[in-house]
Amino acid sequence: MNRIYKKNEYIIIPVYSEYLIINTNKVFKEGCIHVKNMGIARMLIDLCLEKKLPKNPHFAENLIRISIDKEYIKKLQDFKIKECINYKELMDAHSYKRHKSALRQVR
């Protein structure tokens, strides 16, 4: 294995043009994620070790996969539900419409 970074139970391995973060305390299939940027990989490990919430709710799913702390996972799940955009509500409001599978604001 060509690990390029290790911090506590987390290791980062380069895979083609991506990076694989592995939690060595979890089963491989459940405790690994792929990211495209080394900086993001290190940030996710730091957030997981410090038990902090990410600014971007899309990172919450990655943190859930690599974390083993049940309280932190519950906190991340609540954060993800609260912060994610509900597209159905946007579509019901008449300020957005779908155009070529993208949401566009109606003027």
Quick overview:
It contains 4 helices and 6 strands; from the N terminus they run ββββααααββ. With 107 residues, it is an alpha+beta fold.
Summarize the structure in words.
Helix 1 (38-50) crosses helix 2 (59-66) and helix 2 runs antiparallel to helix 3 (70-83). The strands form 2 sheets. The protein has a 4-stranded antiparallel β-sheet with strand order 1-2-3-4, covered by helices on one side. Strands 5-6 form a two-stranded antiparallel ribbon. The chain has 4 helices and 6 strands; from the N terminus they run E-E-E-E-H-H-H-H-E-E. The protein has 107 residues and is α+β, with helices and mostly antiparallel strands. The chain has helices at residues 38-50, 59-66, 70-83, 87-92, and strands at residues 5-7, 10-15, 18-23, 32-35, 96-99, 102-105. It has one domain.
Q: List the total number of helices.
A: 4
Global mean pLDDT: 81
Low-confidence stretches: none
Query: What is the radius of gyration computed over CA atoms, rounded to a whole number of angstroms?
Result: 17 Å
How are helices and strands ordered from N to C?
Answer: EEEEHHHHEE
Amino-to-carboxy terminus distance:
54 Å
- Measured as a percent range, the helix fraction is 25-40%
Structural class: alpha+beta
How many strand segments?
Answer: 6
- Widest sheet, order of strands: 1-2-3-4
Give the overall form. elongated
Question: What profile does the largest beta sheet have?
Answer: 4 strands, antiparallel
Number of domains: 1
- The share of residues in extended strands comes to 25-35%
